Amino acid sequence: MTQQEWADKDYYADLGVSSSASEEEIKKAYRKIARANHPDANPGDKTAEERFKKAAEAYDVIGDKKKRKEYDELKAMLRSGGFGGFGRGGGSGFPGGFRTTQEGFSMEDIFGGTTGARQGGRYTSDSGFGDIFSGFFNGGSSARHSARPSRGADVETEITLDFREAAKGATITLQITGEAPCSQCHGSGSASGNPSSCAECKGSGFVSEDRGAFGFSAPCQKCGGTGQVIIDPCVHCDGSGTVRRTRSITVRIPAGVVDGQKVRLAGKGEAGPNGKPAGDLFVTVHVREDEVFTRHGDDLEVIVPVSYAELALGDTITVPTLDNPVRVKVPAGTPDGRTLRVRGRGVRRRDGSSGDLLVVVQVQVPKNLDVRATSALRTYAQAERDSGFDPRAGWAGRS
Predict the structure, then answer these.
(1) Is Cell division among the key words of this record (predicted)?
(2) Which residue from 23, 113, 178, 232 has the least number of CB within 10 angstroms?
């Protein structure tokens, strides 16, 4: 598509709205055209299909606030001849923030992608500008996608920890299989360890081309945008700089990790090609339930069995923590189910502080009493009635 053809393209006209139309007006216009011209509703009608594709492309651009602003500004620039300085090292002067470099002006940052692709019986529009500039970029974004990876692949794995390991933190060793630096060429891919500068792009990784008023840059096809070429490939890794092997990685799981949380280890993923940075390792942590503790945020709850006498008369009981047991005072007259708080005995936080231990007291009723205990309890029960104590006073409307 020539510059003039691009300048003549009018997405507002394709939707039948004015350039000052509101977002709601644009949406209504697109839906109306889409319903009337959808290929599924007009099988074999090429005119309706083309109308639908043009509307989808237009809505993908002016139906998006950011793309619409860039489209309006770009059209205004084209109409006024404002791109005359691009491709010759000058600044753009364009409020949309286009990239200008010594290699030229690149519109790919804004206008990559393809439009009007048919998927699953319907048409979709991914970007809106890819087809327009495909002629300028030797096939649109294909040159960019053909560039070699700039880093290694990320790796994901899962582990399962005991409740107390997750709460206190743990150090574990994982076996990860994937791309690792070649030990023969030290990851360079070159047998001599010295990749050569690409002659095509002079080591920049980009090639530029002038097209009339436009100057464009794209990743170098010869070196894949790396700026380097391997003229003496390592026989051990075939010049890639990486080999597939199993590595042992030590992972420190921080204290307080919760079930389902991901821990990221930067640079511990697969090695990048030809000395490029490694990807990241993401470890998803699963936590087993504990028989004693239940977690509530950074607090830990523990249910402690007690006797009626301990609650009625008061006592000091021993309760477990993540570390050593602690002694907790139970005040006289404590009701069943009351929660006693022990400060700083919960889960450790990142700032070094800790949550609390919540001690819930729960009365245990004896199932079998000997004669002496039974006699003493009967005596107590009578004394309790004589004192006027009624456990159901005020309950269910009783006075």
Answers:
(1) no
(2) 23
